Amino acid sequence: MTPDARTGAAGGIGRLAADTGSSALRVLLAYRHSPGLVVASLAVPVVLVVVFGYVLGSAMQVPGGNYREFLMPGLFAMVAVNGIMPTMVGAARDIGRGVTDRLRSMPVSRTGLLLGQTLADLLVSVCVLALMVGVGLAAGWRIRGGLADAAGAFALLLLFRFVMTWVGTCLGLIVGKEETAGQLAVMVFPLAMVTNAYTPTGGMPGWLRLIADWNPVSAVVQACRELFGNPAAVGPAWPLQHAVPAALLWCAVLAAVFGPLAVRKFATHGR
Q: DSSP secondary-structure letter at 59?
């Protein structure tokens, strides 16, 4: 590589890093000036544990007998899935308000702008996940596996959240209208419910169980239950039999599809 090429490569990396940092700061400042959004983000984990762990949990029968230990990995994954909704609405809002056009008119890295937004969301999700872990411990959830496995489970959850943020960003850029994105965000609910997050899939009708067992959320939930050492209902489907590889494979596939699509859509918006 020639000196000019090395200088150009270094300059490109530096520009990407700078644009990523600026974009992340913009998102974090939005949280700072929106205390209601912060409170809502932190309150959701508590509400989920109370509703599912105490209100509905008394009627649930799961392998191992401890429903809250069965439930908590599912709720952790739900927090990751919920990353689709705010990013979808936020991306569509930026298009509607002309923010995307202004950013595209600047000499900045398209990848860096989107990467900064997703990294900022990931930082917020770390805080939400930490709060949810505290609530889960207070509710009786425990990590039964080793520390290395538990660290792997948390890393998988953050990876899944990172990927879900790219999915939401891509969908928001495609939709382009804040109101429509808000309505479509409701579709995340079935994605979250037709899984093994709240109940074993064995009691579902055959066709529905097939969908649930192959849902990427189910693979992540099953992998986290195995890594945390919590009760798990292992079904015959390959993603549940090999949950950790399946979860990583789903993350790789979704990132490979929606990441480039989001960058391309951002770069070509309005053309």
A: G
